[in-house]
Design goal:
Blueprint (H helix, E strand, L loop, with lengths): L2 H14 L10 H6 L4 H36 L9 H24 L1 H7 L10 H12 L6 H29 L11 H15 L8
Helix pairs in contact: 1-7, 3-4, 3-6, 3-7, 4-5, 6-7, 7-8
Amino acid sequence: MSIGVLLGILLSVVLVNNLVLAGFLGICPFLGVSRKVGMAFGMGCAVTFVITVSGVVTWLIVHAVLMPIGDYFGRPDMLYFLKYVAFIMVIASMVQLVEMYLKKFSPPLYTAFGVFLPLITTNCAILGACLYIDMKSETQNLLNAAVYALGGGIGFTLAITIMAGIREHIQFSDVPKCLRGAGITLLVAGILAMAFTGFTGIGK
């Protein structure tokens, strides 16, 4: 496998097709947990772990279990609907592992995340990454799928950490009263998304 191809997949999902800023997935934690850089980075690491492991495991389930069974009966799409069930079960299991780890080894971070930690299970960025891996032609082998999943997590971490850094500075800025709170947050998110469109030329 060419290193250039893997690097292209990684840069594409981190910068060009960022799950949050280009795909608008995972917006809830992106806005809800981006008040402090430390907390945002911790959430990004947790999501990166869940996306990477989920992407690899779901790829194996689809290509090593569901597709061979369908091919055996001469109906490749026979178990297609089970993919979504498998995706949700794998994601929920990975989130449970992260939750148990943080509760034992980092109680302050576990408390700071609050409800957003179990909500990683319903983070559409993770499910979206698994679905993209299943659909895209360039992720039809395990290594490519793993790199795409890792890049998705890195891209999420990058986006939420940058957002948190900007929001920390905004606290000391003279923001018009009508824009304080959700208003300025959404404006910053929109400007950040537009800024990332500048990376589009990387893939050309």
